[in-house]
């Protein structure tokens, strides 16, 4: 273990996974013969999940097993009472045999639920699985089906790879649902430059995510800076760390707009204070209570946040780019720690997408503008270069002034390949490599108040997933995603393309995986059908996990390139038109409505 700080910095205990061993309740030899094998199945599931999962804050995932097997409604009720005490946020019912579905099923109205029916022939759990799913669907309580591909002998203790995959996919998404519930989204400011995604739609947050909305005006930053409502010792530590580790980049402003060295030094002092204040607003800081600011010490219990910045702030004060970039990264002057989810321009919907990606991957997220599609022809016309390899059919330029996590440099590695790791796996050398790969450039001319933007280029070869939640009148929230890869260009080609946008901002060159048809027939079509100017980028091909999570939240997926064998939704979705799954997803989400009604 490295020096990473592992803790729960939000209010509320971490959710647990409830394991429900379901058994044939008939006494006189049947139940008795199944007691050990059923409870052992529950214990194996619990051990597997605990060994292979962590919460996004690094804490271990705990499983709670029912005190007894569940053969009828009385034992189901006792189990539910235990789960309520233990803060169980999702359940997995397991059985190797036939049981009585309506008497044993989990009837909690909002808790994600799955059933693992053992594929055996002696007392087939698959029969219970099918009957129980039918009961769930009839009662409007959708559940996920986990059923192994190959027949096993009763008492076989192996959890086959296909079952493992579905257990993890369901559990990680279910933990995300449970973790969000009761937390806050903090708007620091309001709507930036008329961007609709900045509008905090309280109905969406509360009914679909279980998140409350909190608000502060950006003048709160001014108040805290002027009154010194931040830890002065940490400020000194942070400023010294910045001076040592934040390498200066090019100042591309014309001479009459360049800020003096004295102004730039003052800007650094301001943006470091902003980072401390933004974090304290989100999660609080007990040091403030020692200083006599008890209310401010509490924070807003914010699992995600956004900073308006433009233009009300940036016309006069330094940008929020440093605050956003360093909070979104997995490290700062205090060491390695869980990244915060902070959206630039207070784009609430991109913050939500970042949050979903973080809870599923445990890693930092790249916030970016979906800025430009470069066709092979356009690249060759401008640079004389012929795109090759994964980039041969064109590239998408992902770029934004400030909020891209420094993890997005791709300087963390696993088996020699670039990755974005869960923070507890990051080494001190990888932290330094990310910092060394980043330049901090004076803000460009339309940021009149100064400040600094990050400049880096993401390494090629990372499998990534670009995603975005959008709100659509008449439909509600929808999710779109594109799995693909990061690529790099020769330096001179990169520079020519980058100069046409903004050379002082971080670049990720992205190529989606193409299917040759529909919305993924080519790179241009992906770009042309993206629903917003922003996106969040997660490490890994996690589109299947996002689809599972979206189904739990009742958010339909309007665009994706995930292979069918990785799409995992509740069994009820088939009944809404399984031969046409996109429409079925929309119909199911509309029929069930938001998770928290």
Can you characterise this structure?
Pfam families: Fucose_iso_C, Fucose_iso_N1, Fucose_iso_N2. With 597 residues, the chain is of the alpha/beta class. It contains 19 helices and 23 strands. The strands form six sheets. A six-stranded antiparallel beta barrel has the order 13-14-21-20-19-22. The longest helix is centred in the first third of the chain and has 23 residues, at 30-52. The protein is globular. It starts with 15 loop residues before the first strand and ends in a 5-residue tail after the last helix. The model has no long low-confidence stretch (mean pLDDT 96).
Summarize this structure briefly.
The active site is at residues 345, 369. By secondary structure, the protein is α/β, with parallel strands linked by helices.
Portion of residues within helices: 25-40%
Number of helices: 19
- The CATH class assignment of the largest domain is Alpha Beta
Domain module tally: 2
How are the SSEs placed, and which strands pair?
Layout: E1 16-21, H1 30-52, E2 63-65, H2 73-85, E3 88-95, H3 101-104, E4 113-117, H4 125-139, E5 144-146, H5 161-180, E6 184-188, H6 202-209, E7 212-216, H7 219-227, H8 232-245, E8 247-248, H9 261-283, H10 286-290, H11 294-298, E9 302-307, H12 321-328, E10 331-332, E11 335-336, E12 342-344, H13 348-361, E13 366-374, H14 376-383, E14 395-399, E15 412-414, E16 417-419, H15 428-436, E17 439-442, E18 452-455, E19 463-472, E20 476-487, H16 491-499, E21 507-512, H17 523-528, E22 534-539, H18 543-553, E23 557-559, H19 581-592
Parallel strand pairs: 1-2, 1-3, 3-4, 4-5, 6-7, 6-9, 8-17, 9-12, 20-23
Antiparallel strand pairs: 10-11, 13-14, 13-22, 14-21, 15-16, 17-18, 19-20, 19-22, 20-21
């Amino acid at each position: 273990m490295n020096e990473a700080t592992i803790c729960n910095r939000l209010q509320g205990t971490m959710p647990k996974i409830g394991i429900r061993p379901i058994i044939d309740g008939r006494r006189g030899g049947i139940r008795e013969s199944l007691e050990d094998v059923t409870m052992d199945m529950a214990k194996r599931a619990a051990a597997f999940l605990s060994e292979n999962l962590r919460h996004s804050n690094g804490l271990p995932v705990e499983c709670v097993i029912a005190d007894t097997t569940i053969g009828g409604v009385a034992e189901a009720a006792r189990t539910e009472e235990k789960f309520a005490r233990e803060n169980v946020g999702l359940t997995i019912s397991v059985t190797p045999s036939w049981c009585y579905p309506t008497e044993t099923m989990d009837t909690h109205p909002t808790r994600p639920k799955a059933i693992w029916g053992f594929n055996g022939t002696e007392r087939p759990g698959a029969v219970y699985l099918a009957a129980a799913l039918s009961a769930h669907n009839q009662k409007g309580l959708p559940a996920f089906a986990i059923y192994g591909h190959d027949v096993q002998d009763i008492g076989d203790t192996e959890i086959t790879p296909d079952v493992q995959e579905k257990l993890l996919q369901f559990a990680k998404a279910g933990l995300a649902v449970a973790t969000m519930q009761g937390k806050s989204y903090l708007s620091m400011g309001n709507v930036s430059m008329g961007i609709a995604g900045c509008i905090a739609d309280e109905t969406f947050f509360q009914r679909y995510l279980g998140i409350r909305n909190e608000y502060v005006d950006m003048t709160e930053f001014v108040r805290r800076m002027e009154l010194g409502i931040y830890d002065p010792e940490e400020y000194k530590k942070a400023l010294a760390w910045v001076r040592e580790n934040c390498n200066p980049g090019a100042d591309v402003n014309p001479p009459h707009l360049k800020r003096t060295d004295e102004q730039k030094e003052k800007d650094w002092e301001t943006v470091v204070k902003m980072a401390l204040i933004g974090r304290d607003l989100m999660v609080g800081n007990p040091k403030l209570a020692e200083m006599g600011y008890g209310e401010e010490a509490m924070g807003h219990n914010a699992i995600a946040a956004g900073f308006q910045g433009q233009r009300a702030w940036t016309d006069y004060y330094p940008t929020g780019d440093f605050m956003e970039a360093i909070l979104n990264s997995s490290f700062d002057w205090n060491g390695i720690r869980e990244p915060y989810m902070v959206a630039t321009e207070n784009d609430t919907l991109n913050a939500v997408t970042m949050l979903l990606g973080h809870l599923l991957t445990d890693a930092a997220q790249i916030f970016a503008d979906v800025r430009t599609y470069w066709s092979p022809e356009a690249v060759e016309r401008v640079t004389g270069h012929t795109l090759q390899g994964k980039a041969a059919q064109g590239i998408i330029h992902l770029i934004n002034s400030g909020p891209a996590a420094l993890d997005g440099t791709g300087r963390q590695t696993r088996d020699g390949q670039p990755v974005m790791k869960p923070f507890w796996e990051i080494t001190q050398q990888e932290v330094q490599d990310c910092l060394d790969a980043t330049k901090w450039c004076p803000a460009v001319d339309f940021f009149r108040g100064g400040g600094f933007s990050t400049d880096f280029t993401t390494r090629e070869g990372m499998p990534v997933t670009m995603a975005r939640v959008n709100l659509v009148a008449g439909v509600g929230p929808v999710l779109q995603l594109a799995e693909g890869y990061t690529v790099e260009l020769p330096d001179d080609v990169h520079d020519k393309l980058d100069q046409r946008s903004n050379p002082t901002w971080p670049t990720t060159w992205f190529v989606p995986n193409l299917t040759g048809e529909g919305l993924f027939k080519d790179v241009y079509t992906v770009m042309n059908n993206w629903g917003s100017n922003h996106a969040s980028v997660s490490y890994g091909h996690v589109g299947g996990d996002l689809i599972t999570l979206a189904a739990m939240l009742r958010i339909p997926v309007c665009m994706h390139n995930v292979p069918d064998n990785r799409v995992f939704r509740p069994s009820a979705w088939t009944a809404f038109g399984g031969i046409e799954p996109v429409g079925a997803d929309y119909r199911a989400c509309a029929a069930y409505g938001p998770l928290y009604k």
